[in-house]
């Protein structure tokens, strides 16, 4: 998917040439609060003047003084090339997302092996599941081949085991995924289960499922924007 470098008031961004090719986890740049609508800082109420300048947070678009909007943090969900100015609250969120882009996204793209059951079938198939490099498809390969468009996924339920009434650690052992078939309103369900045999690394599968859980949260947030 071809990309182009664009300059906005917020900074340089490397974005897909076609909007349809954008990552489903991405966020649009927010509109900036007009200067005239923010006479004081929207965090500490400091009044702006010739010395105290106004700064806009690149993530929320609100207007702050330098003290309240001094952090420059990577914001890959908006495709910024360099770290950009963000308010303290948004900077914390963006820093947490950096872990997803630096680590968990790679886990999803590398893939893991699961037994996959389609619909109400009583048969399962051993498949390697991974996220495509452009982040737009969940690719499943075994004797069969499926490509599920991420934006068509409606629900993801992570299955866990190990919970005890008195508390204790749980680990992800599978997931139930529902998605719409393109061109129809039909909803298809798939169940992913980490296998017990030697060909399924359960630790790798658990890490993949944890990354998928985080990806789902970002996906829902993108939809609610």
Q: What does this entry look like structurally?
A:
The longest helix has 23 residues, at 88-110. Helix 1 (88-110) crosses helix 2. The protein has helices at 88-110, 202-224, and strands at 3-8, 11-16, 55-56, 63-64, 71-73, 84-86, 112-118, 124-131, 137-141, 145-149, 153-161, 171-180, 187-193. It is elongated. It has 2 domains: 3-106, Herpes Virus-1 (2-Layer Sandwich), CATH 3.30.40.10; 111-224, Zinc finger FYVE domain-containing protein 21, C-terminal (PH-domain like, Roll). With 225 residues, the protein is of the alpha+beta class. The model has no long low-confidence stretch (mean pLDDT 89). The chain has a 7-stranded antiparallel β-sheet.
Give a brief rundown of this model.
One of its GO terms (molecular function) is zinc ion binding. This protein is an alpha+beta fold. It has 2 domains: 3-106, Herpes Virus-1 (2-Layer Sandwich); 111-224, PH-domain like (Roll), CATH 2.30.29.160.
Globally, the shape reads: elongated
**What is the H-and-E element order?**
EEEEEEHEEEEEEEH
Strand order, sheet with most strands? 10-9-8-7-13-12-11
> Per DSSP, what share of the residues sits in E-state strands of 2 or more residues?
25-35%
From the 3D structure, determine the CATH topology of the largest domain. PH-domain like
Task: Count structural domains.
Answer: 2
Helix content: 10-25%
Sequence-ordered SSE layout with sheet pairings:
Elements lengths: L2 E6 L2 E6 L38 E2 L6 E2 L6 E3 L10 E3 L1 H23 L1 E7 L5 E8 L5 E5 L3 E5 L3 E9 L9 E10 L6 E7 L8 H23 L1
Which tags fit this structure?
225 residues, ZFY21 protein, two-stranded antiparallel ribbon, elongated, alpha+beta, seven-stranded antiparallel beta sheet, Herpes Virus-1, PH-domain like, 2 domains, single chain
């Amino acid at each position: 998917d071809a990309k182009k470098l664009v300059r906005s008031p917020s900074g340089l961004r490397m974005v897909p040439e076609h909007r349809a090719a954008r990552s489903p986890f991405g966020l649009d740049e927010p509109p900036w609060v007009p200067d005239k609508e923010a006479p004081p800082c929207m965090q500490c109420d400091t009044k702006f003047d010739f010395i105290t300048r106004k700064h806009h947070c690149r993530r929320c678009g609100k207007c702050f003084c330098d003290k309240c909007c001094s952090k420059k943090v990577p914001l890959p969900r908006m495709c910024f090339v360099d770290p950009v100015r963000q308010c303290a609250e948004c900077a914390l969120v963006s820093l947490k997302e950096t872990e997803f882009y630096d680590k968990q996204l790679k886990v999803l793209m590398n893939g893991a092996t699961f037994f996959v059951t389609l619909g109400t079938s009583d048969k399962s198939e051993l498949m390697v599941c991974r996220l495509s490099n452009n982040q737009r498809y969940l690719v499943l390969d075994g004797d069969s081949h499926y490509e599920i468009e991420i934006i068509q996924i409606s629900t993801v339920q992570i299955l866990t085991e190990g919970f005890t009434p008195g508390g204790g650690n749980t680990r992800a052992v599978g997931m139930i995924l529902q998605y719409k078939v393109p061109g129809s309103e039909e909803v298809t369900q798939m169940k992913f289960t980490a296998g017990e045999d030697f060909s399924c690394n359960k630790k790798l599968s658990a890490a993949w499922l944890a990354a998928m859980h985080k990806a789902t949260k970002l996906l829902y947030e993108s939809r609610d924007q």
